[in-house]
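Predict structure. Chain length: 169.
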Amino acid sequence: MRLGSNFIFFTVIFCAFINFKTFGEDKITSTPLINLNQIKPSFEESDNKSEKDFSSKELKNKKIKKNNIDLSHAILIGLDKITAKSTKIKVKFDEIKKFGPLEIKVLRCEKVKVNNKFDDVAYIQVKDVSKNEDDKVFIFNGWTFASDPSLTPFDHAIYDIQLSNCFTT
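Prediction complete.
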């Protein structure tokens, strides 16, 4: 019986090999060779200027642009759990920002030192305006930490908000 079972095994393998060979294409395609000298770099080429070559006028313009940026704001990351899309939300202090049906307001944002490490901490209030209630109760009202958002969890069925960074002037 051993010889018969080996014969059946090799017959099945031979038939499978013939079937795979007949379904394969006889045509071999290849891509043309690329001349590497003709490829342009995808990065910007430097002007070979050293830092000493910058004029004082250019430095003043950069400083003016930097001063025009409003630095008193908090950066939050909003997550839509249904679509799995995250959104960067920039909220100025005492300003109401909408994220879906949520209204987010940052009252305070600071950097604190905990165990010789600096951490961003913010006091935020979140309302859900999709519910038609007259008093619009906060669904979250408290402190949140950038390094450990699980300390004060924000619970919502669809949305999640996490503190990323604080910028204060």
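Summary: The longest strand covers residues 102-114.
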